Amino acid sequence: MTPKKSLLLDEIIREYLKQQEPIGSESLRLSLNIKISSATIRNHFKTLVEEGALAQPHVSSGRIPTELALKNYWRKKLLPLEMLEFESLKKIEQSARETGIFCALRFYKPNFLQEVVSVGTRFLVLGFEEGEAVVKYSGAMERFLGELVGLEIRDIRKIAYQVCAHELATKLDHLLEGEPVLTFGLKELAELLQPSREGERLFHDISKGKWLDTLEEGLYFDRFIPRGALAFIQQIRVEKSAAKLMFMGSLNRNYEAFYQEALA
Prior knowledge:
By secondary structure, the chain is α+β, with helices and mostly antiparallel strands. 45% of the residues lie in helices and 22% in strands. Strands 3, 4, 8, 9, 10 and 11 form a six-stranded mixed beta sheet that branches. A three-stranded antiparallel beta sheet has the order 5-6-7. Strands 1-2 form a two-stranded antiparallel ribbon. Strand 6 (123-128) and strand 7 form a beta hairpin. Helix 2 (25-31) crosses helix 3 (38-50), helix 5 packs antiparallel against helix 12 and helix 9 (186-193) runs antiparallel to helix 10. It starts with a helix and ends with a helix. The mean pLDDT is 91. It comes from Wolinella succinogenes (strain ATCC 29543 / DSM 1740 / CCUG 13145 / JCM 31913 / LMG 7466 / NCTC 11488 / FDC 602W) (Vibrio succinogenes).
């Protein structure tokens, strides 16, 4: 896709996200900061439809971006590279409600593994800065845990899930249970998951913070996200406290507006 056509597609998507209705050539021309005729825009519309980036719901209507175009757009816009500072939790809640998305947030205090102590050949005690966890002894587990000393508890739990160390992962889950999960937009989450055969289980896991705990920062589609939706996870700071944020909603929600409102 040429740079000019790519910029035009981005503008179509931005207008669609704002208006939530098909975009016509004349309304798009008025929103652009460049001189371009409606006829030229219509020609680009035709090409973008042929390339699968736009669709025309009705013969007489404007165009809307396809799922593929929206996914590619959010891949460019939603990047967990920057630690964002939010002044107010209330603004996050308000912005999530106005955008029509589900939002989950967990505050946390870093908790590092300081030592691993064997109790004979029966147990291994993991000593964290705050709290302890006990697992069954094995030489392999002792060597494995020895390599994890100095890591943060959430990173260790993530590794435990990755290598299928289920007892260790479960014990760390219990140690972290005291950290509350704040959620906004449970109604939106329920509606999003309703078509899924596993909707009830997913609703429980997501609303209780399991995805916050187990998923890496980043943007998610398709594999375990309902079709036509996305989920995004990143580290943030709210009112000067460290937290992990997840939001989830339809592809056609205006996530740029969510950030603009929440960060204002």
